[in-house]
Write a structure and sequence with these properties.
Order of helices and strands: HHHEEHHHHHHH
Helix content: over 70%
Low-confidence stretches: none
Number of strands: 2
Strand content: 5-15%
Structural class: mainly alpha
Oligomer: single chain
Strand order of the largest sheet: 1-2
Number of domains: 1
Length: 231
Amino acid sequence: MQNATARLLDSGNVAALIAGLVALVLVLNRGTWLPLRNVVTIAHEGGHAVVALVSGRKLNGIRLHSDTSGLTVSTGRAHGPGMVFTLLAGYPAVSLLGLGGAWLVTADRERWMLWGCIVLLALLLLAVRNAFGVVSVLLTGGAIGAVSWLASPSWQALCAALLCWFLLIGGIRPISELGRKRRRGRAGDSDADQLARLTGVAGGVWMFLWFLTGLASLLVGGYWLLLMPQV
């Protein structure tokens, strides 16, 4: 415990804290959030796609739209666990991806984290079915690739930490946005509402579970990032 506290207070980890503050500003500021929200949408739809495949459904394609919304289409049973888990996966996928990345950064494996993102984006690209989606995935992968190939190890660690913070914090904001839309009656076909119709469990319960997952991921992942090796 004392060693962990000492590392948290180490001046070398101020960079990790600054990266977290920058990510917070990027998420809270409307001007930066709107374009960067596409990164969150990519992770969200990727979560739907992965769970759809794992649950035995056929993945038909993914569409990413300029308004930062997305759609993952899969075929299989209209009811049952496969459909439920597919719908359930989108929102937690963003936070859990950030949590996994934070673990790698803390273990001094930020290059693995960056290359893992590139591989996942390349696989996702195979399923994207519209031009805007292709451009979004290519731009995101290109930015991460540039850091992996051109940046020094210190900058790789800092950029990886920034990406993790962004996913951890950015994974929570869409849940609050969905809550506002549902209160205004503008999200009748959201993941939460579809889950409610399939399971009989209120959409608000699913949103609460997503929020708890996001908050827990942020607390654990943030703690890990603040323990990352000096940059």
